[in-house]
Amino acid sequence: MSHDLQGNVLTGASETGATQFAAALQQLSNYAGDPLAIAEQLIAAEPGFVMAHALKAWLYLLGTDAKAAQAAKGFIAEAEGLEANARERGHISAVRALADGRFHEASRIIEDVSAEHPRDLLALIGGHQLDFFTGSSRMLRDRISRAMPHWSARMPGYHAMLGMHAFGLEEMGDYAQAEAKGREALSLQRLDGWARHAIAHVMEMQGRHEDGIRFMRDDIEGWTKDSFFAVHNWWHLALYHLETGDETAVLELADGPITSVAQNQMLDLIDASALLWRLQLRGIDPGKARWQALVKRYEELWVPGYYAFNDLHAVMAFLGAGRQDLVEATLAAQGEAEADNIAFSADVGLPLMQGFIAFHKGDHVRAITLMRPVRNRAARFGGSHAQRDVIDLTLLEAALRGGDAALAQALAAERLQAKHESPLAALFARRAGLQHGAA
Ligand SMILES: [Fe+2]
User: Fold this and answer.
1) How far is the CA of 306 from the centre of ligand 1 (A)?
2) What is the pLDDT of residues 68-82, one digit of tens each?
3) Residues whose CB is under 5 A from ligand 1 (ion)?
4) 7 CA from centroid of ligand 1 (Å)
């Protein structure tokens, strides 16, 4: 009977297959390499290898790509017919729920798997991403906290545990611990793109843009080499440059590594949308051509109505490109949302899309009316605090442009308090006419 490197039984796997599976999991835990290719080779060579099927399904589903989810439904059905142990059945049930759009149920199923098998690294990685998609800060931290006593620094994959824990601690606002865990992870594995990302978030949330630029630029190879997550980390670097108003550096990144990818992924499109939108908010017009090029990429990949978080970002691109037809199609598709996305859209996505549309039209009063009630529950449709900051930035800009001085001052003060060193926070404070002697 074969086992993975953390001691979990692998039904249907040969010793060679188990070794290859370990290599795939190592790649996934760095967010680099091509674990999907390994999973597919394993399935071809050892069709009864249940966890190879599970790995393939997770990789298809974690991209929040509607077409990939549709494809996954077909091959998950094959895996459901295989002989499997309880842990493996848990994985297959979780990916089935996720393929059907039941994010919360998938999260709970794989949470139970982790409780029984805390050394199942794939269950933790899959669950951690689900916590991200459902905006559950607490579980981003605690799913990993629960498993930690069962791990030690000597175990393969420990860096990934530290990296995930770091991100969860960051999303819970425990920045000092988050940075310490993230740095410990990188000391064990400098290629761990998720640990790198957790530290990038700490610096973003604390407004430490100069530290962030140094931290990311000091080891670009470490987080870009063979990485399938590099675009998002480039995006974080671009945010630091945007803090200082360094338009040239931001546009270089926007036109370079943030868009020049061999294969489109939803996350890459989201990052490109958010960056161009934030540039525009700062009064730097990225130009219609950039927006149009981005819309072209959306048209190749994106399906409206699948995941409201993606749809909001698609709307930013459609507004920028002047594609009213696509804006309207996106709004219409919200009525066809299924499963958990019904609530993601109704509670958060749709009012934000309408708010962003009103903002784009210059109807700042309506934009504020739509966005304000959603702001405090926006985590429900997923993403990180840093990603959802685009909501605060748009709201603050609407308050400034719409002449709502009290709201603008309140939001500017809040931002300055959270990000002492941030030039952007200081700029907002000045624009809002905030008297901030102590700051
Ligand atoms: Fe991020």
Assistant:
1) 21
2) 999 999 999 999 999
3) 384
4) 31
